[in-house]
Amino acid sequence: MPAEHSHASLPVAAARRRRLRADQARQLADLLRHQILTGGFPRGVLPLEDVIAADYRASRNTVRQALDLLRGEQLVHRRAGVGTVVVCEKYPHALDRLQGLAETLHEHGTVTNEVRTVGPVSAPGPVARRLGLPDHTDVLCIERLRRLNGLPLSLDLSYLPMDVGGELLGCDLENTDVFRLLETVTGGPLGHADMTLEAVNADAHSAAVLEAPRGSAVLMLERLTHLPDGRPVDLEFIRFRGDRITMSGVLHRSA
């Protein structure tokens, strides 16, 4: 019986070792990803596998698995004669300030907008209610493909009440954040925004527009922006390419 028990436990032990190595690879990938995104490899080339193994006290197999995970995310690529190189830059989007995309990413290049839709539409019930309007009230609908240095970054869909949004018709929506235009129209700064962030799979339409693989993960930001008096004026649904953006902020724990 003891011999049979020992023999039966061999596959279990092997599975545990594989699971442990997979866990370690995921944890190492998280650390390397952070280094990549924060400029920890300024020449854009990761150290050799044995150097990573020594620095992080990991096995070579674990290092290889971690690099495979990062290659799967299209963050790095193996280049013959060079090693593992960073091939995709992600841009930081702050979550602790209410800013438009061009304001947020001004240090990283030029944001331009392809206006795909602009004009009045009958507001669906959920949109009207979020904006504090009767159902089927006309609202201004704006859909823009936003690019950073020519690369597709986000697909933005905005709904605005017509008394405010109507003033944006004829404005330079191709080169100006909606927030900037709203502040010009209303004559003062915006107030606050309610925000939800989640990961969703890219549908066929948004994947094609963003030039992303169909079904790949995108970051969906839903944001309802208010004037200082509390009136909601801008309901947005923004799909970011998850491989080109990171969300960051500073959070303070209340006493």
Automatic annotation (TrEMBL):
Gene3D superfamilies reported for this sequence: Chorismate lyase-like, Winged helix-like DNA-binding domain superfamily/Winged helix DNA-binding domain
Molecular function per GO: DNA binding; DNA-binding transcription factor activity
Top-level taxon of the source organism: Bacteria
Keywords: DNA-binding, Transcription, Transcription regulation
GO biological process terms held by the UniProt record: negative regulation of DNA-templated transcription
InterPro entries membership: Bact_HTH_transcr_reg (IPR050679), Chorismate_lyase_/UTRA_dom_sf (IPR028978), Tscrpt_reg_HTH_GntR (IPR000524), UTRA (IPR011663), WH-like_DNA-bd_sf (IPR036388), WH_DNA-bd_sf (IPR036390)
Domain (HTH gntR-type): residue spans on this chain: 22-89
Cell wall biogenesis/degradation found in the keyword field: no
The protein, known as: GntR family transcriptional regulator
